[in-house]
Amino acid sequence: MTQDELKTLVGQAALNYVEPGAIVGVGTGSTVNKFIAALAGIKHTIAGAVSSSTASTERLQAVGIQVFDAADVEELSVYIDGADEIDHAGFMIKGGGAALTREKIVAAQSRKFVCIADESKLVRTLGNFPLPVEVIPMAARRIQRQFAALGGTAILRLQDGVPLVTDNGQHILDVTGLNIAEPLGFESEVNQWPGVVTVGVFALQKAHVCLLGTADGVKTLVF
Ligand code: 5RP
Question: Model pTM greater than 0.85?
Answer without folding.
Answer: yes
